Amino acid sequence: MDTTEPASAPDDGLALDQRLLEQSALFEMCHTITSSLSLGAIVENMLRIPMGYFLIARGIVLLRDPKGPEFRVEGLRGIPRDIFHKTFRLNDPPGHSVLMRDHAGDEEWAAFFRSFGIEIVLPLATSRGVLGLLGFGERIGGKTFGLREVEFLDSLSGIAATAVANGLLVEEIRSVNQKLDRKVQQLHTIFDIGRELNVSLDMEKIGHILSFAIMGELLVNRCMVLAGDEEGAGIRVLVSKGAVPAPPADPAWLRLAKPETSAGDGFSPEWKQAGITALVPMRIHDETRGLLALGPKLSGEPFSESDLEFLSTLGHQAMSSIENVRLFREALDKERMEEELRFARGIQQDLLPRSMPPMKGIDIAALNVPSREIGGDSYDVLRLDAVRAGFAIADVSGKGAGAALLMANLQASVRALAGTGLPIREMVFRINNLIHGNTALDKFITFFYGVLDTEARNFVFCNAGHNPPVRMSAGGEATLLERGGVILGMMANVAYETGEVSLAPGDRLLFYTDGVSEAVNEKGEEFGTDRIMDVLRSVPEGSASGLIEAMMDAVVRFRGKAEQNDDLTLMAVKID
Q1: Is residue 549 predicted with pLDDT exceeding 80?
Q2: How far is it, in rounded angstroms, from Cα 190 to Cα 188?
């Protein structure tokens, strides 16, 4: 038996050599394609190597958008470059290699590849699905793709798909790292700018620091920083850089709660016309108190979510600093005003009698307690001669500095006229015309003036709309001193009358303002004239100061925890 193996046919040897050559070439191609992690290099090698090996005239690589059916052209050879990086919708792409000469379908993907003369389409498929499509045109010299060439390209596309997946993963990691780097850079910016903002007490400077940081970080050509006024209804432009026109007159942006860009449907057309492409509210305590209005980026790229988040953080931080400046200024203004009021209070207290003039036969005491730093109540005791003294008490409408100034004018007028010898009614007549001619219609004064003669033991008086003082006799009989006329300042040339009461040892005179009679307790009840009479009767003896103390104690006990809501003045005279 002949055991010698028959010699192989020459054709079988050539086929084996060809197969080994193809395997070697495939190995080298795969090594070249997978040796790089750069997606661009992988795509370039996916086209260059097989096209050179098989002498292919044209090739194309498309990668799929992970969010949809669109494919983006990432590589081209022998095909017009105008479609490079353009996106095409190719529904239901093939999951296996397709020779276009054998495919009769008219799907979107098939029509697309036929339009560019592609002969074979190969999917770049992994376990994650089809990542992309690889297409090659005709071979030079009219050769067609046979079974071996298709198998070769199938193997190549499978390995290339793995390389593409790795490249996409690297791109994703690189993108994440870039975003992280960007975030770190923005955090550094926020931290650095925050330190500068927190040490500034100038709103305009805060606006400049903020605008420079934004324009430098995001490379925008226009930036406006707006803040609402203290009433929250108007607009204040802190900074405007890059020839930004005036903002719209209607501050509707005060209702803006989150950033808006010109790509949105609700973006204001007025801002668009002004060249503004992004509006970012500056908020504090869940309220929009300011606004960043930005022009486009110099790069032409739209504002990303990360950009808007960065701007919001920076804007809120700046708004907090602006609010701190506002509160600091308010505190300074309040402190300055309080200092001025304390100074005015000192002047007002100096205008009141430092001590009562010594008068034989009478005991005098008085008390003034303003409800604010300065008040609108006043009293005065004027020694006219050895036996006569003038007593004045008044209450100006309103409170505060205006009331105090008007009261000072009244007091000066009384002191100027009291010693002239004019009858009391003529004196009050002149004072009324003076007040009427120099004050607004809403300003008026209740006023009482009387002259006590210790020798004649009488008291002549004129009441211009003031709470009637009380003459309480030693026997407990009360007389209200009401005769006089209208409130000072209401109208000019008003005639006033005078009244007169006789006085006896043990009689008392009590003068007061409505801060006593209208003192209110926690139930809303008023102290009233009846309680004043009760106090007078409960203290039948003692000094004038004792009567003042008893009256004040009664008012304080009645008021309880309720606040004093009006100036309070008391003056008492005891006839010895």
Answers
A1: yes
A2: 5
